[in-house]
TrEMBL record:
<dbReference type="Pfam" id="PF02171">
    <property type="entry name" value="Piwi"/>
</dbReference>
<dbReference type="GO" id="GO:0003676">
    <property type="term" value="F:nucleic acid binding"/>
</dbReference>
<protein>
    <submittedName>
        <fullName>PIWL2 protein</fullName>
    </submittedName>
</protein>
<dbReference type="InterPro" id="IPR012337">
    <property type="entry name" value="RNaseH-like_sf"/>
</dbReference>
<feature type="domain" description="Piwi">
    <location>
        <begin position="178"/>
        <end position="247"/>
    </location>
</feature>
<dbReference type="InterPro" id="IPR003165">
    <property type="entry name" value="Piwi"/>
</dbReference>
């Protein structure tokens, strides 16, 4: 039995767990807890130590004494900031998230996406079609304009295939606002090669999408596509939201 101190332990990978969504959910529930859950666990630990004769003897041997409650101090809660969109403003919910609002309203500044390139291997053709359909159905409510892309279908998913096609397409097209690539799951090498090419060698805004994020029920895919559209707008120079910052 190996016992690790939680505060000195760090989770370094979830590659195998991602295939098991139930196990991933359980791990995230353990890692992300509310203040109330933290307090309940700490007081439960103190109570167990106090009620354990072995633990009490060990503490006495060390000359230690634990209080029955955690340390309490005076604090205050800062007021919630108002978030401004183009046509309205709102106060975030208790979870301090506002994805639902920005997916239904127009951001402060939107850049039309008219000249862009979509690249994917042939075996992921069905995901590319679903992605385009979801982008068209979501962009209107978000106040974004998404034109028809120049599509480049690759024969395979090798790094060389992506690099050659990107270099050829960027060299032949006049002005490319954005390059979007769909890559197979678990191919960090392909991701790194595309980003290096688009950030260093042939600078162009890029959006690389893992195929796994586009699989699942339509509601999940729609939510993923909405987040992708928000990212794209930022990369093109748009402004999503703002807060009031008085002098």
């Amino acid at each position: 039995l190996v016992m690790l101190v939680p505060e000195l332990s760090f989770l370094t990978g979830l590659s195998d767990l991602r295939k098991n969504s139930r196990m991933l959910k359980e791990v995230m529930c353990e890692m992300i807890q509310s203040p109330q859950q933290h307090y309940h666990r700490l007081t439960s630990l103190l109570r167990r130590i106090r009620n354990s004769p072995d633990a009490s003897r060990e503490l006495q041997r060390w000359g230690l004494c634990l209080d029955s409650d955690i340390f309490r101090t005076q604090a205050r809660i800062l007021p919630v900031e108002r978030v401004n969109l183009r046509h309205r403003s709102f106060l975030p919910a208790e979870d301090l998230g506002w994805h639902r609002e920005v997916a239904k309203e127009a951001p402060i500044a939107v850049i039309p996406l008219n000249s862009w390139l979509l690249m994917y291997p042939k075996r992921l053709q069905h995901l590319a079609k679903d992605l385009l359909a979801a982008m068209r159905s979501s962009c209107g409510a978000m106040g974004m304009q998404v034109g028809q892309p120049t599509v480049q279908e690759l024969r395979d998913d090798r790094i060389e295939s992506y690099v050659r096609s990107i270099q050829g397409s960027l060299g032949s097209l006049d002005k490319v606002q954005l390059l979007m690539c769909i890559i197979p799951s678990g191919r960090d090498d392909v991701y790194g090669a595309i980003k290096k090419l688009c950030c260093v060698q042939s600078p162009v805004p890029s959006q690389v999408i893992n195929a796994q994020t586009l699989t699942g029920h339509p509601g999940k895919i729609r939510s993923v596509v909405q987040k992708i559209l928000l990212q794209i707008n930022c990369k093109l120079g748009g402004q999503l939201w703002g807060v009031d910052i008085p002098l």
